[in-house]
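Batch job 17 of 40 flagged for manual review because the log was empty.
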Amino acid sequence: MNDGLLARLEEGSRDRVCLLCGKPHVAFNRYAYSFLCPACRTPRMRKEEDRIKAQLRRARQQGVLATLTIAEWILILDHFAWSCAYCRAKPYQVMEHIISVTKRGGTIASNVVPCCIRCNRLKDNLNTDRSLMIPAEIIARVQEELTAFLTSRGIVQ
């Protein structure tokens, strides 16, 4: 979170600005952790917000960058049509770190893509059968596409 946002939370302010639509709103109470307005806080968006919070917490625990916002994640999901970035055939199920958090990759816009469970397992660091792994060319293609997309949107890290 940015310092201004933290300062407002510490002061007990209920004033918020939605991170998706940018509209101001008043939080349910001063401790409310969500930064989505009631109109944007659909069950699907709440699930994505919770997913991001969990991944940011995991990255911070590992001591790596943790700057991904809900707005950035939704842009990435929209870019990949809410489908797996690797196989493009299945709907996305998990947030995949291109460079694993355990290998010092952060939870940042330029390092996360939507992924299906199958591709996530095939890319897994613990996968020892090289014939079943996702080819390095596909991983590089996804990373290049993500970088180009984020650059075109002015989101570069």
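Reviewer: the log was empty due to a logging misconfiguration, but the result itself is present. Residues 1-41 form one domain. Unflagging and moving on to job 18.
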